[in-house]
Design a protein that fits this description.
Helix content is 45%, strand content 18%. It is α/β, with parallel strands linked by helices. One of its GO terms (biological process) is mismatch repair.
Length: 877
């Protein structure tokens, strides 16, 4: 056996081998050591190899999926080795013959299909990147849904596209793997190198033609050699990992980069589109707006949010669909109720295609088609906008298949085919006959037990069954003499004796056992044959079923966005091909929801970047006042509008944005030796080198990570470059108040600030963006609010006052001013007055008040106390 294991393992050196032994998958040698640590299971040993103990661990077959998921998440690949014959069949070749085993599947991050291993609301993409004669291309597929896409892609754009798609696994030619390993690792994507032969464009074209049963790929579009290479590599990899059982893939769709808004990885991270900065879904824009009720609708929402459109016709069609659902509220509510009962048709189809399905997947298709019929009825006699009208045409036309599945399947089928009982009575006469014999045979066994009890006079006699003896008659040991003596021993043939029982059989019982076993096995064989027939009928119509699934997802998304718009009081944006960007009463959807939970209102703000040739708002104001929220909400409103959604604003007019760039927040990249400032400069450089005149640029605190004059000069030059060279629409937040002078020098720059109010030395944030410039940053006040010790705050005020005075009185250098200041002195502990942190000028007042008992004062004494306090305060000031 160990020789067989080593032979199989030699073909999969980079994967853990799950070696099937009965009801367990066993792992040996280094695989066992690695798996026991990763899965936190016991490591044992079995036999010896070359004089050394063989490490071993195992997992139950029935629970293998959970262990597979853990291993995949920890970066392992798993080769699943199954028994290809029964032990009885192996013994026919000789008593010492080893059961034949072989790998039936290689499990990798990008090839998962099981429900338990996947997030139903997210795609699981397998991607491939190819370069042919300096031309790059990226292809990606979700084998759990069949979605297959490809696009030309310059190598410099690989990072942004990986950020958009978030593939689980990326295939790449082994000769260029090292060049891109660092880029790929940034996105948590498993990188799988493949040989050059897998990416050969000629061989790739042949593989694709065989897969789709066409003579030429021209029927799907015109593809470059690099695109064919990337698609072919995916098909080759699927052939390897699925052992020839290729999944059901849709015809490849070619995407054009100029049809979607370009968003780089840093911007996606800064804006928290699909994941928060903490890494989870909660706190992201996707989490805040997702009201879909079907898995397919949720995946469509994430795709739309990750790839906002630049095509006006597409955007307007999507907005019209949402408008319809907002206007037709009762229809939308009825649709959502029906959609909640729609199963995941796409993933059920995929599992059927690669033989990883069961009776419940057949039922999912049946239930999905049934709900599609009901939804079509809800939309009948209604004038629909173009997008919904097209979707509604794909909801019907499955009458024959639906009728077949309705009559063939029981209401609630079992999980596994081998369990049987999923074909409804009356569907197949042969099955009904076999079931009748099987079930009546069980009744006959009960009658025989009663007969044997009367015949022997032993009321406790039982007829039982196990896998070794089959059916047998069992009595307790107290009746042994009676059963073994004449005349009973002539009828009841002794078979086995245990500690407390004796077991017998009779010719009559053996005959009945044969009939029952054959009937049960025959019934199960018939059910399996019928299952295969139903599966074939479904797969023959896979293309139409895929269209139905897509239509249901489109309806789900439209009703979900309408529900969101109504509940959150969002407005339909006007989107055109101008350079307008005007928002009235804009809000940040995530922050607004968070504040609502705390019972606090969100202050809406306007934005207007509609200048020509460019318009830049230079935003000043204190920290904590809401500048970053204002920047982000403007970007998110634009993104939502081009996704085809209503937006969190009272009004919005948006000229199509080609690129969205955001440099907000501070972070370092210590693994690459990059400081916070270096990361900031790298991201800023990417913006200045790529942004065009239709881009929207969001910049926050450029230059803050270095010395004041260095930072000011960099921020100044960056703003000038955006205005003069990129000519982009932009929001530029800064604490360098000197830059407000640019509004008078550059025609497209306008000052804006976040309003605050001072009261008794404190700063009150109004969170209102107004035209004009801030004259200070209120940093010391914010530090006090943050809880810095009073002594530190007081010293900071002292230094700030000295610096500002020196600047007003002749521009004295900061170093000279600070040199004249006395050194910091820690404040003496406050007296034990019971009052926390009393300013020195009020210490005497606090002492007087602490010693005063108001209830004991006469009116005259209270008046005298007020005069005394006033005199004490005057003497201190």
């Amino acid at each position: 056996m160990m020789a067989q294991y080593l032979e199989i393992k030699s073909g999969y050196p980079d994967a853990l081998l799950f070696y099937r032994m009965g009801d367990f998958y066993e792992l040996f040698f280094d695989d066992a050591v690695a798996a026991s640590e990763a899965l936190d299971i016991a490591l044992t040993k079995r036999g010896k190899h070359l004089g050394e103990d063989i490490p071993m661990c195992g997992v139950p077959v029935h629970a293998a999926e959970n262990y597979l998921l853990t291993l995949i998440r920890k970066g392992f690949r798993v080769a699943v080795g199954e028994q290809m014959e029964s032990p009885e069949e192996a013994k026919k070749r000789g008593s010492k013959s080893v059961v034949r085993r072989d790998v039936v599947r290689l499990v990798t991050p990008g090839t998962l299909t099981e429900e338990s291993l996947l997030d139903a609301r997210r795609h699981n993409f397998l991607a491939a990147f190819a370069i042919v004669r300096d031309q790059g291309a990226l292809a990606w597929v979700d084998i759990s849904t069949g979605a297959f896409h490809v696009m030309p892609l310059p190598p410099v754009r690989l990072g942004p596209e990986l950020a958009r798609l978030g593939p689980s696994e990326l295939l790449m030619p082994d000769e260029i793997e090292r060049d891109y390993a660092e880029t790929v690792s940034d996105f948590g994507t498993a990188l799988t190198p493949m040989s050059r032969g897998s990416f050969d464009s000629t061989g790739a074209a042949d593989r694709l033609c065989r897969l789709f049963r066409v003579s030429s790929l021209d029927a799907f579009g015109t593809f470059s050699r690099a695109e064919i290479s990337a698609m072919g590599a995916i098909v080759d990899y699927l052939d390897i990992t699925q052992k020839g059982k290729l999944p059901l893939l849709r015809k490849p769709q070619r995407e054009a980069a100029d049809r979607t808004m370009q968003i780089d990885a840093a911007t996606r991270r800064n804006l928290e589109l699909t994941h928060s900065l903490a890494g989870g879904r909660a706190g992201s824009l996707l989490h805040a707006i997702d009201r879909t009720v079907t898995p397919g609708g949720a995946r469509l929402l994430e795709r739309r949010l990750s790839s906002p459109s630049r095509d006006l016709a597409t955007i307007r069609d999507r907005l019209a669909a949402v408008d319809f659902m907002v206007d037709q509220r009762q229809t939308a509510r009825d649709l959502r109720d029906a959609l909640r009962r729609v199963p995941d048709i796409d993933r059920a189809l995929s599992r059927l295609a690669i033989d990883r399905a069961g009776p419940r997947d057949l039922a999912a298709i049946r239930n999905g088609l049934g709900q599609a019929e009901r939804i079509a009825g809800l939309l009948a006699q209604t004038e629909l906008p173009a997008l919904l009208a097209d979707a509604s045409t794909h909801l019907q036309g499955h009458d024959d298949l639906l009728a077949l599945l309705d009559t063939a399947l029981v209401a609630e089928p079992p999980l596994l085919t081998r369990d049987g009982g999923f074909i409804a009575p009356g569907h197949d006469p042969d099955l009904d006959e076999a079931r009748k014999l099987r079930d009546e045979g069980r009744g006959v066994i009960a009658q025989m037990q009663t007969q044997y009890a009367e015949q022997t006079g032993i009321s406790s006699i039982k007829i039982k069954h196990n896998n070794v003896l089959g059916y047998f008659i069992e009595v307790t040991a107290t009746h042994a003499d009676k059963m073994l003596s004449e005349p009973l021993n002539e009828v009841f043939k002794h078979r086995q004796t245990t500690a407390n029982q004796l077991r017998f059989t009779t010719p009559e019982l053996s005959e009945m056992e044969t009939r029952i076993i054959n009937a049960g096995g025959r019934a199960l064989d018939i059910e399996k044959r019928l299952y295969d027939g139903l599966k074939a009928q479904i797969l023959d119509r896979a293309s139409e079923l895929t269209d139905t699934a897509r239509a249901l997802s489109e309806l789900d998304l439209a009703t979900a966005l309408a529900d969101l718009s109504i509940a959150e009081n969002w407005a339909r944006p006007r989107v055109d091909d101008s350079r307008t960007l005007r928002i009235a009463g804009g809000r940040h959807p995530v922050v607004e929801q968070s504040l609502r939970k705390e019972g606090a209102p969100f202050i809406a703000n306007d934005a207007d970047l509609s200048g020509d040739p460019s318009m830049i708002w230079l935003l000043t104001g204190p920290n904590m006042a809401g500048k970053s929220t204002f920047l982000r909400q403007t970007a998110l409103i634009v993104l939502l509008a081009q996704m085809g959604s209503h937006v969190p604003a009272s009004e919005a007019e948006i000229g199509v944005v080609s690129q969205l760039f955001s440099r907000v927040g501070a972070s370092d990249d210590l693994a690459r030796g990059r400081s916070t400032f270096m990361v900031e400069m790298v991201e800023t450089a990417a913006i200045l080198n790529q942004a065009d005149d239709r881009a929207l640029v969001i910049l926050d605190e450029i230059g803050r990570g270095t010395a004041t004059y260095d930072g000011l000069s960099i921020a100044w030059a960056t703003l000038e470059h955006l205005h003069e060279v990129n000519r982009s629409r932009a929001l530029f937040a800064t604490h360098y108040h000197e830059m407000t002078a640019l509004a008078g020098k550059l025609p497209g720059v306008e000052n804006a600030t976040v309003a605050v109010r001072e009261h008794d030395g404190d700063v009150i944030f109004l969170h209102e963006v107004i035209r004009g410039a801030a004259d200070r940053s209120y940093g010391v006040q914010v530090a006090r609010l943050a809880g810095l010790p009073d002594a530190v705050v007081a010293r900071a005020r002292e230094v700030l006052d000295a610096l500002e005075k020196g600047d007003r009185e002749g521009g004295q250098k900061p170093k000279a001013i600070i040199d004249d200041l006395p050194l910091f002195a820690a404040a003496a502990p406050a007296p034990e007055t019971g009052i926390e942190t009393i300013p020195p000028e009020y210490a005497e007042v606090a002492t007087i008040l602490e010693a005063t008992h108001p209830d004991e004062l006469s009116p005259r004494e209270a008046l005298d106390l007020i005069y005394r306090l006033k005199a004490s305060t005057r003497s201190r000031t």
